[in-house]
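*** Protein under study ***
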Amino acid sequence: MLKKTIAALTLAAVPATALVATTMPASADVERHGRCGTGSYELSVDREGRGFEVNVDLDRVTPGSQWVVAVRHDGKRIAKVTRTADYEGDLDLERFARNTKGKDTFRFSAKRVGSTQKCSAKIVVR
């Protein structure tokens, strides 16, 4: 009798767990990776409260090189900065953007100052 009760409780708990897992909202964490000059880039958009944390990372570019990095949210510029790569050839940019109605489109572009090296990417979050 005890085995039947445990089995029934186990079976009853499994659908409830599955229901909870399937009704939770999907995460809006999205990343794009690619080449950028001699290095690489990562664009990430993470849902944070009522908006998004947008990160641009350039890795393994020429140490000391200067880059103009721009970020747009739904076509509006939310950042445009000139950054210098550190001694490891890395640079980072982080911004926060409020959520808008419908889909949110994020674009970044990076261009090395005095060079033709450049890269860009786009993420759309629903």
Notes: The chain is about 15% helix and 55% strand. The chain has one domain: 30-125. The mean pLDDT is 84.
